[in-house]
Amino acid sequence: MSTKPEDLTTYYTSKYPLTFTDDFSENDTSLTKRYQEAWELAKRAAALLKDSFAAKKVVVFGSLAKRSWFTRWSDVDLAAWGIPDEQFYAAVGAVTALTPDFKVDLVDAKECRDSLRKAIETEGIEV
Prior knowledge:
Elements: H1 5-15, H2 29-53, E1 57-61, E2 76-81, H3 88-96, E3 104-108, H4 114-123, E4 125-126
Helix pairs in contact: 2-3
């Protein structure tokens, strides 16, 4: 198999067709509504992390940070700075309990892989 980008795209598109569906549509009102709900959840989670767990900074990253990547199955990815180690898992529990409608992933920005932290810092949106 060729490793040229165009050949790989053709190969993987045919092998995994559902992965390459176009879930983004500005005309899809239900997806737009879900995207807005995810942002409201992210803002509520950030406020909770700052008020109750001493987070100094909270950043949204992943599909919520880039509208064209957001799908019906997207979760809410958050990175936080400043939460004391002994409170981190309580913070995870608190943000995941905010709603059953979205999966919420919380990462400790100072403890995650360097490559992930760099992506969060360059592509993330502070809330």
